[in-house]
Amino acid sequence: MVTAKFDDILTAFEFTSFGGLDEVEAYLSLERGTVHYSTDAEHGDPEEVPDELETGPYLTLPRKNDLDLGADLVMRFAVERLPGDVEAIVGFFRHRGAYGKFKGLLERKGKLQEWFDYEEAAKESSLREWCAENGVELV
Questions:
Q1: Distance, CA of 122 to CA of 116 (rounded, Å)
Q2: Pair 75, 110 in one domain
Q3: Is 71 found in the same domain as 51?
Q4: pTM score, whole prediction
């Protein structure tokens, strides 16, 4: 079992999940508990990547959608907290700009902060669960 800082894993998770940065991957060293990033060559290199990244003892960190924290989370929130608006929210996610429309609805209903808190709690809980399932002890 490797020991790693939760803050480092959370930062890497947020960075790789931000705005569709599919060219960025984050890896956890299973020997040192350190986080490393890898990018497509055309997008630059945020740090020195170890040579053994592809072959050594590294675990690829998940992204938002790997942990069902995208539209699935929105729908769970809607069912739990906005049952009368579920149909409208489902409709938002059939078209572009869904998150903007969803957040506009939340703002009108006075539930935007409630959504942010819900999303943050789900993200932390899911990431901690993923770490436990993958033998990563958090400090």
A1: 10
A2: yes
A3: no
A4: 0.82
- Number of domains composing the chain: 2
Residues 49 and 90 in one domain: no
Handedness of CA 95, 89, 104, 69 (dihedral sign): negative
Kindly state whether residues 56 and 72 are assigned to the same domain.
Answer: no
Domain hosting 44: range is: 2-62+131-138
Which residues make Cβ contacts (< 8 Å) with residue 31, sequence separation at least 6? 2, 56, 57
Q: In the prediction, which pLDDT does 2 show?
A: 94
For 58-84, what is the mean pLDDT? 94
What is the band of 22 on the pLDDT scale with cuts at 50, 70, 90?
low
If asked whether residues 72 and 117 sit together in one domain, one would say yes
Question: 47 burial class (0-12, 13-18, 19+ CB within 10 angstroms)?
Answer: exposed
Closest CA to 75 of 54, 94, 55, 53: 94
Mark 63-73 as b/e (b = at least 16 C-beta within 10 Å): bbeebebebeb
Q: Report the amino acid identity of residue 139.
A: V
Distance CA 67, CA 76 (A): 13
